[in-house]
């Protein structure tokens, strides 16, 4: 996956990856009620992740990521009115930003029109992030001959707002080991807690 070098503003970057279809997103006010419900569920998952920073400026994100290893990332609210969220990530050229677009019930990375139709789409933001994190860790993204002013984009390690709770770390470990949570010999309340966040990142 590649993207253009970081800009000072919260701007879209060029991405190459995955498969999918769709066009540019409408504003949040144009969403149908069922889509608003889907956004609400996705935002609930995102808040439970521990690496959603909410309202944060480009400068604040850059400052948070400046001294972190390459591949460190966070998700924050987008400063662009047509987008809900932005990924801020530390690349080899420094911190940069990439918008997440939402259209017709699906989330995907924002990109130029010629690449957009190839990008994979997801039902939730956390699932989108998990996909690219696993892709990076499994080294399935083959390096390409990069055009001028492009850098590799790796999503490797989330930057948490605070130290994750032991309970949260445990449920991520359980989810890594099995997808049959309701078959485990655990109290129902504990099973419900584990299934509230079914992701590995």
Please outline what is shown here.
31% of the residues lie in helices and 17% in strands. With 201 residues, the protein is of the alpha+beta class. The protein folds into two domains: 2-158, SH2 domain (SHC Adaptor Protein, 2-Layer Sandwich), CATH 3.30.505.10; 166-195, SOCS box (Elongin C, Chain C, domain 1, Orthogonal Bundle), CATH 1.10.750.20.
In words, what does this structure look like?
- It is built from six helices and seven strands, in the order βααββββααββαα.
- The chain is of the alpha+beta class and 201 residues long.
- It has two domains: 2-158, 2-Layer Sandwich (SHC Adaptor Protein), CATH 3.30.505.10; 166-195, Elongin C, Chain C, domain 1 (Orthogonal Bundle), CATH 1.10.750.
- The strands form two sheets. The protein has a five-stranded mixed β-sheet.
- Strand 2 and strand 3 (85-91) form a beta hairpin.
- The chain is globular and about 50 Å long.
- 30% of the residues are buried.
- Residues 2-29 and 142-149 have low confidence and may be disordered.
SSE layout:
Layout: E1 2-4, H1 33-49, H2 58-65, E2 72-77, E3 85-91, E4 94-103, E5 106-109, H3 113-116, H4 125-137, E6 150-152, E7 157-158, H5 166-177, H6 188-195
Parallel strand pairs: 2-7
Antiparallel strand pairs: 1-6, 2-3, 3-4, 4-5
């Amino acid at each position: 996956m590649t993207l253009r070098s970081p800009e000072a503003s919260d701007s879209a970057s060029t991405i190459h990856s995955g498969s999918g279809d769709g066009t540019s997103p409408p504003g949040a006010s144009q969403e149908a009620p069922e889509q608003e419900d889907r956004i609400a569920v996705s935002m609930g998952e995102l808040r439970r992740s521990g690496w959603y920073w909410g309202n944060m400026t480009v400068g604040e994100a850059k400052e948070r990521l400046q001294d972190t290893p390459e591949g460190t990332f966070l998700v924050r609210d987008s400063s662009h009115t047509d987008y809900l969220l932005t990924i801020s990530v530390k690349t080899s050229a420094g911190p940069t930003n990439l918008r997440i677009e939402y259209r017709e019930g699906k989330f995907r990375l924002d990109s130029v029109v010629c690449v957009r139709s190839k990008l994979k789409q997801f039902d939730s933001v956390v699932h989108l992030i998990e996909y690219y994190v696993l892709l990076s860790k499994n080294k399935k993204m083959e390096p390409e001959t990069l055009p001028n002013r492009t850098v590799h984009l790796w999503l490797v390690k989330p930057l948490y707002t605070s130290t994750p709770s032991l309970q949260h770390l445990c449920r991520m470990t359980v989810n890594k080991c099995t997808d049959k949570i309701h078959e485990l010999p655990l109290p129902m309340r504990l099973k419900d807690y584990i299934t509230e966040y079914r992701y590995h990142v």
